[in-house]
Amino acid sequence: MSPSDQRLAAAIEQWFPLNARDLPWRNPRTPWRALVSELMLQQTQVSRVLERFEPFMDRFATPCSLASADEQDVLAMWQGLGYYRRARSLHRAAREIVDRFDGEVPIDAVSLCSLPGVGRYTAGSIASIVGGAREAIVDGNVMRLLARVHCDGASPTDRVFIKRVWSWAQNLVDICEQPPLLNEGMMELGATVCTPTLPSCDKCPLAALCQSRLQGRVSEIPPPKRSAARQELHHYAVVIKRRGKVLLEQRAATGLWAGMWQAPAIESQTILSESEVIKRLPFPLQSLRIQKVMQRTLTHRNVTLHIYSGSLKRGARVPATMGVKWVPVGGLADVPISNAGHAVLAADNS
DNA sequence: CAGGCGTGGCT
DNA sequence: TAGCCAAGCCT
Question: Alpha-carbon distance A128 to A182, whole Å?
Answer without folding.
Answer: 9
